[in-house]
Amino acid sequence: MYINFWYPMIRSEDLSPGKPEKVKVLGLHFAVYRTDAGEPIVLSDTCVHRGGSLSGPWELGAQPRIVKDCLVCPYHGWEFAADGSCVSIPSIGYGTKPPTRAKVDSYPAVEKYGIVFAFLGDLPESERPPMLEIPEWDAPGWRANTVITLDLNYYYERSIENGLDPAHNEFVHPTHGFKGINRETYKVRDYDVRDYEQGWGMWFLHRFDTPGLQDKTWDEAQTRAGGLFAGSGTHGPATMITEINVGEGQTFKQYFIEQPIDAKHTRVFFVNMRNFMLDPKNDGPIHARNKIIAQQDIDILENVYPPLTPISNVKEVLMPADKAVVAYRQWLAKFDDRGWRIDWEELSRRNHRNTAFAIPSPRRREGGSWVIEAVPLVSSRDARKAAQDE
Ligand code: FES
Ligand SMILES: [Fe+2]
Questions:
Q1: What CA–CA distances, in Å, run from 346 to 54, 155, 376?
Q2: HSE (CB half, 13 Å, CA atoms) of 249?
Q3: Is the bond preceding residue 360 a cis peptide, omega within 30 degrees?
Q4: Ligand number nearest to the C-alpha of 172
């Protein structure tokens, strides 16, 4: 898991005015709420007074939880402004200036594609990897299904790698192929991997020798122009993009914007674009089919071992069809070398003991003292390997 990327926090429709929501990402909690004007605000969830949860119990609260765009801690009523500064401490009297140490991390937040995103890291704006672009979103001739979320009981990298894998379809998804493999002719075609056009990941386009329609015979499929082309790629560590060309000029473009919750849980924000069957009445059936396909993957991935991907190539036997997975891992190594990877072993060892952690926010670069400790990071891929070899 990496800091310094944009992550989906919550669907826009799930964030109501006046009610903070608790969201867990990268192993830590965040409080998400809206200002009176509707702007989304994302704060680290831990109150610097004595550890109250800023998003904390909503129903039990005796006092309003959002006052003048400030989030009010449910424990002793400290009020935190959108930039994370504490502006009121009731016990010393409203209007008395709080100490400057009384602040929490506040993260840049943007609402787009029906999702509230936050930049979880401390990079200044000019150095941040860009947010994912969905060029089809506003393009004429394209339609988006409403964003749905899928909850997975496994690590996000396992999920991303599965989406980059052209060799599993025939085995996991009966509706994708011929209800079984043709042992005489089946083989995964070679393919080339390149960088994704948005610059922070990889991309490949692959020809499947299947029509994607179960009523076609093998011969019909072979005569069909081009077969079925599908491509997959990544943007940053936790977004996977898939393009499926099901026929002449008929394309699904699917964005799996993943929220790494912890080592065992992931929430996928799924944006599904299409340029055919544009009638909204098709949304339901398309959703239903996608859910069936997703469940087939889930059933496999919940049983994969070890839960996290091995760091060493000699712990697996990789084949040419795994080229895309290897390319994704090479991108992760680049993020490691920037020092953005959370030291999960160290965090797990110390978390939930007597130390609270937060993802560092951009304001930390301005200095000042910060009460909540920043998450431990790994300095490079080599350092990570060395630690794991011990
Ligand atoms: S713990 Fe938040 S106000 Fe006391
Ligand atoms: Fe799959």
A1: 25, 17, 7
A2: 4
A3: no
A4: 2
Q: Is 90 in the pocket of ligand 1 (CB under 6 A)?
A: no
Nearest CA to ligand 1 atom 3: 76
Q: Which residues surround ligand 2, an ion (CB under 5 A)?
A: 297
What is the overall mean pLDDT for the chain? 90
Q: Which atom of ligand 1 is nearest to the CA of 73?
A: 2
Atom of ligand 1 nearest to the CA of 52: 1
282 residue type, one letter: N
Q: How far apart are CA 54 and CA 58, in angstroms?
A: 10
Q: What are phi and psi of 372, to 5 degrees?
A: -85, 130
Q: Which residues pair with 253 in a beta bridge?
A: 243, 273
| Ligand 1 atom nearest residue 78's Cα | 3
CA of 309 to the centre of ligand 1 (A): 39
Q: Which atom of ligand 1 approaches the CA of 51 most closely?
A: 1
Phi, psi values for residue 77, rounded to 5°: 80, 10
Ligand nearest to the CA of 47: 1
> Tens digit of pLDDT for each residue in 63-114?
778 999 999 999 999 999 999 999 999 999 999 999 999 999 999 999 999 9
Closest ligand to residue 294's CA: 2
Determine the residue type at 148. Answer: I
Quickly tell me which residue has 């299409």 as its tokens: 274
Question: What is the rounded distance in angstroms from the CA atom of residue 234 to the CA atom of residue 119?
Answer: 18
Ligand 1 close to Cβ of residue 92 (< 6 A): no
How remote is the CA of residue 87 from the centroid of ligand 1, in Å?
13
- Residue of 54, 102, 35 whose CA lies nearest to 370: 102
| CB 117, CB 7: distance < 8 Å | yes
pLDDT at 214 over 60: no
Cα 90 to ligand 1 centre (Å): 10
Residues 6 or more apart in contact with residue 366 via CB below 8 angstroms = none
Residue 171 neighbours by CB under 8 Å, 6+ apart: 181
User: pLDDT of 253-263, one tens digit each?
Assistant: 999 999 999 99
- Angle among Cα 27, 33, 35 to the nearest 5 degrees reads 150
